[in-house]
Design goal:
The protein is mostly loops. It has no helices and no strands. The mean pLDDT is 69.
Length: 85
């Protein structure tokens, strides 16, 4: 009686073939966005800006920048340990 090799059992599908469960729906927000602002009151659109005062004249050139003397930055590391004798 010849020996028949049984076919190997079917292997489970790879994990990447499984469809992941759908994500849960987002929670319902407890607040809603604020309503849009009301439209501005309708006023007469005179495009003459005569109610704005003229800009003040410039008081000459701006002063030169101030340069401070160089200061070394503070040491952020701990001082070296004392030498061993």
């Amino acid at each position: 009686m010849p020996f028949h090799r049984h076919p190997p059992p079917p292997s489970p599908p790879p994990p990447h073939l499984y469809r992941p469960p759908p994500p849960p729906p987002p929670p319902r927000p407890d607040f809603y966005p604020p309503p849009p602002p009301p439209p501005p009151p309708l006023h007469h659109h005179h495009h003459h800006h005569h109610h704005h005062p003229p800009p003040p004249p410039h008081a000459g050139p701006s002063p030169p920048p101030v340069f401070y003397p160089y200061r070394p930055p503070p040491p952020w590391h701990r001082p070296p340990p004392p030498p061993y004798y």
